[in-house]
Amino acid sequence: MAVHSRPVSIKERTLSFPSILLALYNLQLYTHPLRTKAITAGILTGLQEFLAQELSGTKSKRKGKAKEDDKLTLYDVIDERVAKLALYGFFISGPLNHGLFEILNRIFKNRTGSGVKFLQILVTLLIILPIQNTVYLAAMAYITGMRAPEQILTSIKKSLLPIMKMTWIVFPIVQTFAQKFLDPPLWVPFFNLVGFSLGLYASTKAKIKQRKLSEDDQ
């Protein structure tokens, strides 16, 4: 006699801890997209700067001579620049990205076909990503101490094209990989991970270069 096991409902299935976290994150992304993206951007941008400082050896030190009985303070862990970039991610980067892609989705809503997908990618590459990178460079220039509009504009002109070249190469590859090999619920975390990794690499490389230039000038 064959033994038949009854189907197990989704609620009864045992989920792994990462799967539960992913499900909760996607639920928040669906119910509160703006808030979720803002918090995510704030955390990742701040963490990216923190790790870049640690990896490049450029972490800010406290002024004054440290004493043996000094206790670890919040400033020893998170400096002003990390905090500013976290605020940038929360108040500017996250909401901006949400708004831009919401507009894109509304423009192409209920439109299907390979031509539409190609046009959507083209708009992303030529309009949305340049806006995102321009705002990021302007914010970075301001955070590093530039205040005059001419200084900020010069900084943007100097750095925008190299960043866009890398973006134009990486974005289609990443998007194609996600569409072919990943389930849709994994797309947003995957894109966040790729963006975080590339940003960390670029930031660390720039800080190491700046540190070496400073050491040579001394």
From TrEMBL:
Protein name in the entry: 16264_t:CDS:1
Membrane topology per record: Multi-pass membrane protein
UniProt main location, coarse: membrane
UniProt organism field: Dentiscutata erythropus
Residue intervals passing through the bilayer: 118-139, 184-202
Keywords: Membrane, Transmembrane, Transmembrane helix
Record has Transmembrane helix as a keyword: yes
Entry-linked PANTHER family: INTEGRAL MEMBRANE PROTEIN 25D9-6, PEROXISOMAL MEMBRANE PROTEIN 2, PXMP2 MPV17
Any GO CC annotation of this UniProt entry: peroxisomal membrane
Claim: Transmembrane is one of the keywords in the record: yes
Location of this chain's protein in the cell: Membrane
Similarity section: Belongs to the peroxisomal membrane protein PXMP2/4 family.
